[in-house]
């Protein structure tokens, strides 16, 4: 068994760090439990020099002697039993169906965590390129910004670049061990960085430092960091009304947390079917803004009659439109239908409370707890508005308004259902928050929905907070991390250097004591290296370990205390081995009652050396327990027999749960991969645009249309621009691929409609709508890629060809597919 370590006595370790009065009521973790992994051995078998043990003496001196004292909370049966079982499992893994299912689930969770990080990076790149492409289109971008855009589009060359030397890597291992295990350091830094720095830091924190989103220890440490950040936010905010509402690093953290795997799984399971059902009704118009309803009404009258009556002038103010009797008659049934739809959404969300990820509920709990302590006179409604501001504003509503961004729908919603989803989100937000109609008075018509559901929603938001704390299990998880030899994170060079630089920049605020472990580590590392070019930003596994700890060789020695006897430990170990034997010999698992001596004898006389060793060991343990009077051979060891039977039932149920969870997460993984493909297609569109832009520039500057462009870092000569196409597509092809969002072509004529698409010059495209048998097209549209990219940047997904409305992102993808390989 791997050596364990415990810290010197007198070590403070609070989930909230040192935040003062606002955090004083939260229970602290025990002072004697170290957090971390065993340091790898250096020359001569001694632990290699490394740094960064959390929970050690704050002076950094390492003074103190080993201790075997364990706090009362560590001695309860659950913690000891779970810890001992975990240690016993390090022996030889049992290869049964449950173990295989658990391994598949672990692998799937790892893939989801890794893919979520890739998506986060791509989303950040797309946001950046969205903002820069607009300037590029308008030729208002500086040369260095153009280079930055180009670098953002470069792929990483895993063969290039250089890693820090082994000494530096060891120091970084110590630093990131400290940062992961003592979340207060990261929490403090998150409050100090600027908005321009927060996204890069969040990438490291959410998807690297605590990147395993389904690993209990990492998730609980991340939540502990959130608690520190929230407590400080409450402490520094002077006005209740501004709490958690502004666009701050804290609010960005909360939003990013909801985009992790568990949050995405919840949205997919709960909202996807409801949203898809709504958007299937493409022509259902539920607009209730009187001005828009009036404009749509007079447009329809003009189309039907060819003229407008004098009583319906254009360009009327909102109050005139609202007073129009016909407008009121149109809006009234829409209000009823909107409230009915919103009720179904609300019922779906409230019925799924048990599916809400634990972390999101726990953050809601902290918001309520901090509000009660900071604002003791705050009403229940006020507290619920803060909870709703997080749960609805930052989690639920974004997925309702833009379901395609969360991969909840298979196609971009058409104009009318898109507007309906926006109205539904506004209704839910008004219900969760104090309604404000200063800008949209027409929403007051939906007040009955708010009044009818206010009490219910407050009860739901309070129920969201009813989850247990995790400090005790975090103690156990942190302690068990000591037995892990493979504690590591996957990190890129730039994440490593950026985190180093941020902590170095703020070290005087974060640590005033020269002997503080964080400062010691940063002093040893020295100045942070510069960021490497994107192409050299390789990822690698960074081992995590500490140096300020004293090894303990025996887990049972560490566990023994006044309330945990050696007999208790023997009983638990005996039970654990019998369960392992039954899992290894499934043909005996269903026999009741379980004949424990016969089971041990069968294992001890088998041909499998692992079973033989376990069988002999459990026979000896059984004899010791009988001699000590813990079990009785006369009743066939009934106490132990019953516990083994109950454990086998639990494991059977666990297998079913693992299989169900695996199926659910497989759907989440597919969704995340689909989203990754979508983001990559957007990046490819930007690459195509930049290549085309350079080709056009080269054509303008060169002689006779000949020039040179740089593609993926390689120069390429260009000849004269060559017209490509036309490529022909039928109406049904475009419909099937989702390129057509809406069509006004009668059903009986669609078979005779086709589209010709050509590219006369780089970056320009011609779409022609044809009817079979006619020589000339019915309609032609000349497009520049600049126009399409600008539409996409402005979230305008519709390209109107009069007879059909096309989906802009899918049109861009089609152009990229047809013309990106132009020589």
Compact summary:
With 823 residues, the chain is of the alpha+beta class. Among the domains are: 257-464, Orthogonal Bundle (GTPase Activation - p120GAP, domain 1), CATH 1.10.506; 722-819, no CATH class.
Could you explain how this protein is built, in words?
The N terminus is likely disordered. This protein is α+β, with helices and mostly antiparallel strands and 823 residues long. The protein contains 28 helices and 13 strands. Among the domains are: 208 residues, GTPase Activation - p120gap, domain 1 (GTPase Activation - p120GAP, domain 1, Orthogonal Bundle), CATH 1.10.506; 98 residues, no CATH class. 56% of the residues lie in helices and 8% in strands. The longest helix is centred in the last third of the chain and has 64 residues. A hairpin with a 7-residue loop joins β10 and β11. The chain is globular. The protein has a four-stranded antiparallel beta sheet.
Q: Tell me the β content.
A: 5-15%
Q: CATH H-level name of the domain at 257-464... which superfamily? A: GTPase Activation - p120gap, domain 1
State the share of residues found in helices, binned by percent: 55-70%
Calculate Rg over CA atoms: 32 Å
Uncertain segments: 1-92, 139-143, 550-564, 697-720
Count of β-strands: 13
Mean pLDDT: 74
Strand order of the largest sheet: 7-9-10-11
What is the fold named in CATH at topology level of the domain at 257-464?
A: GTPase Activation - p120GAP, domain 1
Shape field: globular
Number of helices: 28
Summarize the biggest pleated sheet. 4 strands, antiparallel
């Amino acid at each position: 068994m791997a050596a364990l370590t415990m810290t010197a006595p007198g070590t403070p370790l609070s989930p909230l760090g040192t935040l003062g009065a606002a955090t004083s009521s939260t229970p602290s973790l025990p002072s004697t439990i170290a957090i971390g992994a065993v340091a790898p051995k250096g020359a001569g078998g001694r632990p290699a020099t490394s740094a960064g043990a959390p929970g050690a003496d704050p002076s950094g001196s390492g003074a103190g002697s080993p201790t075997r004292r364990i706090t009362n909370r560590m001695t309860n049966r659950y913690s000891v039993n779970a810890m001992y079982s975990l240690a016993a499992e390090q022996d030889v893994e049992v290869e049964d169906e449950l173990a295989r299912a658990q391994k598949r689930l672990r692998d799937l969770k790892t893939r989801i965590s890794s893919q979520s990080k890739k998506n986060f990076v791509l989303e950040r790149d797309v946001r950046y390129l969205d903002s820069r492409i607009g300037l590029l289109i308008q030729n208002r971008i500086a040369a260095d910004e153009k280079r930055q855009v180009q670098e953002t589009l470069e792929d990483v060359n895993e063969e290039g670049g250089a890693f820090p030397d082994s000494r530096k890597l060891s120091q970084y291992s110590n630093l990131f061990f400290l940062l992961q295990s003592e979340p207060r350091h990261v929490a403090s830094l998150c409050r100090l960085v600027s908005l321009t720095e927060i996204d890069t830091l969040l990438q490291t924190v959410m998807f690297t430092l605590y990147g395993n989103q389904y690993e209990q220890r990492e998730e609980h440490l991340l939540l502990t960091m959130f608690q520190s950040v929230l407590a400080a936010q409450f402490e520094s905010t002077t006005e209740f009304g501004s709490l958690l509402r502004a666009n701050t690093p804290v609010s960005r953290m909360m939003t990013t947390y909801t985009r992790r795997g568990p949050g995405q799984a919840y949205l997919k399971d709960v909202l996807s079917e409801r949203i898809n059902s709504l958007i299937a009704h493409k022509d259902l118009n539920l607009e209730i803004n009187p001005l828009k309803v009036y404009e749509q009404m007079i447009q329809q009258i003009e189309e039907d009659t060819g003229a407008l009556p004098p009583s319906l002038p254009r360009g009327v103010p909102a109050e005139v439109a609202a007073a129009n009797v016909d407008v009121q008659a149109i809006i009234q049934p829409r209000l009823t239908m909107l409230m009915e739809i919103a009720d179904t959404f609300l019922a779906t969300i409230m019925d799924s409370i048990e599916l809400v990820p634990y972390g999101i509920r726990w953050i809601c709990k902290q918001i309520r707890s901090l509000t009660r302590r900071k604002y003791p006179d705050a009403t229940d409604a006020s507290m619920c508005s803060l909870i709703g501001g997080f749960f609805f504003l930052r989690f639920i509503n974004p997925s309702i308004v833009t379901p395609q961004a969360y991969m909840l729908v298979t196609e971009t919603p058409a104009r009318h259902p898109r507007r309906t989803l926006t109205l539904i989100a506004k209704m839910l937000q008004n219900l969760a928050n104090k309604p404000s109609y200063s800008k949209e008075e027409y929403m007051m018509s939906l007040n009955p929905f708010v009044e009818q559901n206010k009490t219910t929603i407050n009860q739901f938001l309070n129920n969201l907070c009813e989850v247990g704390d995790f400090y005790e299990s975090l103690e156990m998880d942190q302690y068990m991390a000591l037995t892990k030899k493979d504690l590591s994170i996957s990190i890129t060079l730039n994440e490593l250097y950026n985190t180093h630089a941020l902590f170095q920049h703020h070290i005087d605020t974060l640590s005033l004591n020269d002997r503080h472990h964080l400062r010691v580590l940063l002093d040893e590392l020295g100045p942070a290296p510069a960021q490497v070019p994107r192409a050299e930003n390789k990822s690698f596994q960074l081992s995590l370990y500490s140096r300020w700890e004293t090894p303990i060789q025996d887990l049972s020695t560490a566990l023994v205390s006044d309330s945990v006897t050696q007999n208790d430990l023997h009983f638990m170990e005996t039970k654990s081995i019998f369960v392992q034997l039954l899992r290894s010999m499934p043909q005996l698992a269903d026999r009741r009652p379980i004949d424990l001596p016969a089971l041990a004898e069968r294992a001890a006389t088998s041909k499998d050396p692992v079973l033989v060793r376990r069988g002999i060991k459990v026979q000896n343990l059984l004899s010791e327990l009988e001699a000590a009077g813990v079990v009785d051979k006369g009743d066939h060891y009934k106490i132990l027999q019953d516990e083994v039977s109950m454990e086998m039932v639990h494991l059977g149920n666990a297998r079913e749960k693992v299989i169900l969870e695996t199926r659910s997460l497989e759907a989440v993984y597919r969704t995340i991969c689909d989203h990754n493909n979508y983001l990559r297609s957007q990046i490819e569109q930007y690459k195509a645009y930049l290549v085309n832009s350079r080709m056009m520039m080269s054509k303008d500057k060169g002689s006779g249309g000949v020039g040179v462009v740089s593609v993926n870092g390689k120069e390429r000569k260009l000849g004269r621009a060559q017209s490509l196409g036309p490529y022909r597509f039928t109406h049904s092809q475009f419909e099937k691929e989702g390129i057509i969002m809406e069509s006004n072509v009668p059903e009986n004529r669609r078979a005779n409609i086709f589209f010709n698409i050509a590219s006369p010059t780089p970056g320009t495209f011609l779409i022609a709508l044809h009817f079979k048998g006619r020589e000339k097209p019915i309609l032609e549209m000349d497009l520049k890629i600049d126009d399409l990219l600008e539409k996409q940047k402005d979230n305008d997904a519709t390209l109107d060809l009069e007879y059909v409305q096309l989906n802009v992102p899918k049109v861009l993808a089609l152009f990229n597919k047809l013309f990106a390989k132009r020589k």
